[in-house]
Amino acid sequence: MPPRSRKRKVYPRPFLKWPGGKRQLLPEYEARFPEEIIKTRSIKRYVEPFVGAGALFFFLIRNYDVRESYLLDINPELTMAYHVIKNQHKELLERLGDLEDTYLNKRFIGRKRYYYHLRKRYNHQLKNFDFYNFHEGWIERTSLIIFLNKTCFNGLFRFNKKGEFNVPTGRYEKPHICDERNIIEVNKALKNTEIINADFTVSANFIEKDTLVYLDPPYRPLNNTSRFTNYTKNIFTDDDQRRLAEFFKEMDRKGAYLMLSDSDPKNEDPHDEFFDILYRNYLIERVMARRLINRNIFKRGEIKELIIRNYS
Ligand SMILES: C[S@@+](CC[C@H](N)C(=O)[O-])C[C@H]1O[C@@H](n2cnc3c(N)ncnc32)[C@H](O)[C@@H]1O
Asked: Ligand 1: does its nearest atom lie under 6 Å from the Cβ of 74?
């Protein structure tokens, strides 16, 4: 079994492993914050329209005085989990504690059965589940999301076309299912934060002059057909990218500080000018990142990522 990570833990930090997590690029982003923010170590208002696991948000909470924040994501499972940690974290911790005890007390086959039993339960719940009005089921479902995320293969978070979670079990010796210290710190971090389940355009309601906005949309697929057809729930098409570029322009006119990251299509095709054209009036930089760019482990490597800003 792979050993547990020996990296030093910091709090608060993302409570889920989420596709596209940005931990390794945090120093690159920080080096590009507006001067005023670096000087004062203080942010009046922060908006993140594609929050995912929130790597940059938690980094800011750890290192800056963030007065108020607005976090948005279109995925209702994710925003539900943020709401539960913000409002019912003690009940959540109780459930996570029970799940962890039961899981760790089992041996290999028992763990495997327990994982598939809970995965099935989680998928069954999907029918008629109300993600939009709080009910007790939110707490249980959030505990299941965290459990599955911590015990599944590679921390993948993948759903089939029916919206069912379909990742097989992982093989961790001692997964930290109930990370009490972090859940408590995340709960504190969400105190002056509003969490909104919506399309990124809704964040316009919270963006004003000098608001710091970090935009991290889903990566533009390398595969040509998926750029145009939204055949799975999570694809952000080229039309969505154009909508986003329009939104960027509008928020620029409001006087917000905007920072956007995306994969660089030039990694695959040096002639692909998609983002260079969409953001031609802004500052476009390319930085190196380590990323799994292919399912094939031998093709993991260094690739370029884009950082686009409306200020220098
Ligand atoms: C690349 S991830 C963000 C990763 C995040 N920065 C992190 O550190 O984990 C993109 C997120 O955008 C969300 N998303 C996709 N389409 C969206 C839309 N139209 N409006 C808002 N959020 C959307 C996805 O649910 C996903 O959580």
From this structure: yes
pLDDT digits (tens, 9 = 90+) for 74-115: 999 999 999 999 999 999 999 999 999 999 999 999 999 999
Model-level pTM? Answer: 0.92
- State whether CATH 3.90.79.10 applies to domain 23-75+183-309: no
CB 155 within 8 Å of CB 18: no
Ligand 1 touching residue 157 (CB < 6 A): no
- Dist. CA 238–CA 250, nearest whole Å: 19
Q: Separation of 106 CA from ligand 1 center, angstroms?
A: 35
| Alpha carbon of residue 9 to chain centroid | 18
Residue nearest to atom 26 of ligand 1 (CA): 52
Which of the listed CATH numbers 3.40.50.150, 1.10.3720.10, 3.80.10.10, 1.10.1020.10 matches domain 82-178? 1.10.1020.10
- Tens of pLDDT, residues 159-185: 888 888 999 999 899 999 999 999 999
Cross-sheet strand order for the sheet of 301-309: 193-197, 65-73, 42-48, 212-215, 257-263, 301-309, 283-291
- Pocket flag, ligand 1, residue 21 (CB < 6 Å): yes
- Selection from 104, 195, 198 nearest residue 142 by Cα: 195
Cβ-proximal residues to 120 (8 Å cutoff; 6+ apart), any chain: none
Decide: 221 in ligand 1 pocket, CB within 6 A. no
Contact at 8 Å (CB) between 203 and 217?
A: no
Determine if ligand 1 sits within 6 Å of the CB of residue 53: yes
Place of tokens 């595969």: 223
